[in-house]
Design brief:
Helices cover 26% and strands 28% of the residues. It is globular.
């Protein structure tokens, strides 16, 4: 029996991926990574269906005096909400350089360890 980590339409830079001539699905690690990217790249107030969805990038992260512990907790919550990511302490580091936020993480998932940079 395989673990259910969900699936989604495969995206290429935020748009549906039609490179094979039709719809493709992201499954397994690809689905988990894609959902993480979607969560980390969605700014709060950006999605019309739920204005509370997303990262509070401009109100709590890219501000004059950001609180690093607060920012880490924001991203931990987002990563922990991804289907297939186990809710345990995650190895996450965050770098903020001007207006760029980089997340390096090694996450334990239902199908194994996943390392990524977003």
């Amino acid at each position: 029996m395989t673990a259910d980590v969900g699936f989604d339409f495969k995206l290429d830079r935020g748009d549906l991926d039609f490179s094979s001539g039709g719809f493709e699905f992201a499954e397994g690690f690809d689905a988990i990574k894609q959902e993480i990217e979607n969560r980390c790249y969605t700014n709060r107030g950006e999605w019309f269906a739920d204005l509370n969805e997303g990262i509070p990038l401009f109100t709590r992260i890219l501000i004059n005096t950001p609180n690093e512990a607060d920012i880490l907790e924001i991203y931990r919550e987002e990563l922990g909400a991804v289907q297939g990511v186990l809710l345990q302490d995650k190895d996450i580091s965050i770098t903020i350089d001007n207006s760029t936020v980089t997340i390096d993480a090694t996450l334990e998932t239902l199908i194994g360890a996943l390392s990524l940079t977003v």
